[in-house]
Each structure stands twice: as C-alpha cells, then as structure tokens.
Amino acid sequence: MPHTTDKRTYQELARLLYLGRLQSRGKRPALDPTDRGQLAFQALLFECLMSTREHPHPLEQPRKSAMASISGYLNAICHQPDHLEIHTNTACRIASRVLPFLHEDHGVCGIPGLRLIDVTCRRVRLTHLPTRARLDLVDTHRWHDMDTARMIFQQETSWHQRDGRAPL
After folding, report:
1. Does an H or E element contain 124, and which?
2. Backbone angles phi, psi at 153, to 5 degrees
3. Taking phi first (over 0 means left), then psi (-120 to 50 degrees means alpha), and beta for anything else, what does residue 163 get?
4. pLDDT over 70 at 131, yes or no
C-alpha cells in the first residue's frame, strides 16, 4: 500500500477515537497518557464515577450519589495527549458535581484540588492542582455567547452555596 493510504487510515482512526492529533509510538497509535499525574487523576475520577448508591465514594455528598449519577450523561471519554476530554450534553452540570465544596456536616465533597480554569461556549476546563492533570468537559451544545455560558455555569453550581455549603 502507498504511504498516502496509511496516512488516510491513521487520520480516520484518529477521528473515530476522538483523537485531535494521533499520538504514535513508531507505527502504532498511543492511546494512554504517559504523565503519572494525569493517570493518577483519571484513576480517582473513574473511581468516583463508578461509585453507586449502595457503595458511595467517600467524596460523595451526603444522602446523594451525585458523582455516580453523572455517568448517564457521558457520551464519550477521550484521551488527548495532555488532558482528558469528556463529551457530554451537560458539561456545566457534571462540573457542578465534581468540583469540590465544603459541607458543614459532612466535610469536603467533590474532588479535592479540582479547580476551574475557564468556561467557553462549548467547554468547561478544569485542572487538578495536586497532580497538574487537566479535564475538559465538552458540551455537544454550543452556547450562543460567553455571557450565556457563564450564566448556565453559575446556575448549575449555585447549589454549592446553600444549606451549610461553601465552594472551595
């Protein structure tokens, strides 16, 4: 096969695997990140997402399975070279579940050390300070302007400040 066919095959593979640019080691695509901090954060995130009502993660808020319940909103989980992307139709809602807050009776809920970088018309960018890992929540819906995107984000996270809670 000519080289152009290989290149076309690689580009199609990158598109199907949601890879923006295909990482490769030699002739094989590299799908897993190599940064230990990114891997540690992803392990913590997936552990939180796999919790259930019967077996809640210690970082869950009391009397709810908030992080476990968001798994139904996930459309795709895509590894990028330097960050993890979660494609969803409710990026701001997922951010409100994983961002940490302090519950006066229960302690810290959400993922400690996770902080907001910015909100765009389609993405919520987060960073995990202890591991320097990055998470992008990519919404399938694009908001009309930045004011609308910020308003939606503030509406979704406003419950962090009610009933003895305080955002971190």
Report:
1. strand 123-128
2. -60, -45
3. left
4. yes
Q: How many residues does the chain have?
A: 168
Helix (H) or strand (E) holding 37: helix 36-49
pLDDT score of 37 more than 50: yes
pLDDT band at 98 (very low <50, low <70, confident <90, very high): confident
Q: How far apart are the first and last CA of the chain?
A: 56
Residues 6+ apart with CB under 8 A from 159: 96, 165
**pLDDT higher than threshold 70 for residue 16:** no
Q: What is the C-alpha to C-alpha distance for residues 161 and 50, in angstroms, rounded to an integer? A: 26
Q: What own/partner pairs with CB < 8 Å and gap ≥ 24 does 149-156 have? A: 149/119, 149/120, 149/121, 149/122, 150/119, 152/92, 153/92, 153/95, 153/119, 153/124, 155/92, 156/92, 156/93, 156/95, 156/96
> Count H helices, E strands: the chain?
5, 10
- Give the pLDDT score at 25: 55
Position 109 scores a pLDDT of 79
Residues paired with residue 126 on neighbouring β-strands, in sequence order: 116, 135
The answer, yes or no, to whether residue 1 has pLDDT greater than 50, is no
Q: Is the pTM of this model over 0.90?
A: no
